[in-house]
Specification:
The chain is an alpha+beta fold and about 325 residues long. It has a single domain (about 10-305), classed as Roll (2,3-Dihydroxybiphenyl 1,2-Dioxygenase, domain 1), CATH 3.10.180. It has helices at about 20-30, 90-100, 165-175, 230-240, 300-305; strands at about 10-15, 35-40, 45-50, 60-65, 80-85, 110, 115-120, 125-130, 155-165, 180-185, 190, 200-205, 220-225, 250, 255-260, 270-275. Strand 11 and strand 12 (about 200-205) form a beta hairpin. About 45% of the residues are buried.
Length: about 325
């Protein structure tokens, strides 16, 4: 792993319309671990949930802002429109039966770039897919309930961005982030980085006649790319600025440091560090159990706890 490079995907953040329903789906139906229960930095009356593997390793982290009653969004151009998870070979039959039993909407399996996938949606209509990668994914999955190691998700396989024209976005991926075009199938272009073995793929879907999406429940808010530390992060900040794009100063998100910029196709990109990680304020065995607040909100804990929806957690 070259620590000065973009190390694939760090996390993806989406929007939900109900906290309990979101928690139940991702911890039970999909079998992820909640690794952090905190609040939105800009809206402390709203939760911020983080799901991942045992430790919340970058490249496994899906996060949500569950804004109660926000209304239904819809995907479109200028958005991340599908989240792909890597699963073990031979597991898609299990997942299809599992989803059928739980009445999770899913499709028949298909093939993309020689890899078999199963598409499904969460209760808010967010588009996800399980994919069997063409090479072994050695990351350990989080196992829970009936989802054992032979089926558990490994972390991200890919993210898909839908764009009116891919070229400006592709240049960000190649010229700034160090990705390369791997292959093309129809209007889908696959970009990959060799800096890491997994969570290394971004697909660009070109839809010139597509309509812009509406960012609300069931849509992705932003996509975060991974760097080892602040030194690498700030070097990328200079690269982004050198291409004439606006980018934020570094922001402390408690579990990582962040920069944000909107790429030319309209998708909000983040560059996030590995450090300090999710065990900075909870031991590994307790991750996700307590409500953790950004320090500026700690004096208002009692008021914030009263304003948040109640949440029934397993275990």
């Amino acid at each position: 792993m070259n620590e000065s490079r973009i190390l694939g995907l760090h996390h993806i953040t989406a929007i939900a319309g109900n906290a309990q329903r979101n928690y139940d789906f991702y911890t039970q139906a999909l079998g992820l671990r909640m690794v952090k229960k905190t609040v939105n930095f800009d809206d402390p009356g709203t939760y911020h949930f983080y799901y991942g593997n045992e430790t919340g390793t970058p490249g496994t982290i899906l996060t949500f802002f569950p804004w109660e009653g926000i209304g239904q969004g819809h995907t479109g151009t200028g958005m991340a429109t599908e989240i792909g998870y890597s699963v073990p070979a031979g597991s898609l039959d299990f997942w299809r039966d599992h989803f059928t039993r739980l009445q999770v909407p899913s499709t028949e399996t298909g093939e993309r770039f020689g890899e078999t996938f199963l598409s499904f949606t969460d209760p808010d209509g967010l588009n996800l897919a399980l994919l069997v990668p063409d090479k072994n994914d050695s990351r350990p999955g989080w196992t829970s309930g009936e989802i054992g190691p032979e089926a558990a998700t490994k972390g991200f396989h890919s993210a898909t961005l839908t764009l009116k024209a891919i070229d400006p976005t592709a240049r960000v991926l190649t010229d700034i982030f160090g990705y390369r075009l791997l292959s093309q199938e129809g209007n889908r272009y696959r970009f990959i980085t060799d800096a890491v073995p997994d969570a290394a793929i971004v697909d660009l879907l070109e839809t010139p006649d597509g309509k812009p999406g509406r960012n609300a429940a069931g849509t992705n808010h932003h996509i975060a790319f991974r760097v080892a530390d602040s030194n690498a992060q700030m070097a990328y900040r200079e690269k982004v600025l050198s291409k004439g794009l606006q980018i934020t100063p570094q922001i402390d998100r408690d579990y990582f440091f962040s920069l944000y910029f909107r790429e030319p196709g309209g998708v909000l990109f983040e560059i996030a560090t590995d450090n300090p990680g999710f065990t900075v304020d909870e031991p590994l065995a307790e991750l996700g159990k307590g409500l953790k607040l950004p320090k500026q909100y700690e004096p208002a804990r009692a008021e914030i706890e009263r304003s948040l929806p109640s949440l029934r957690q397993q275990g």
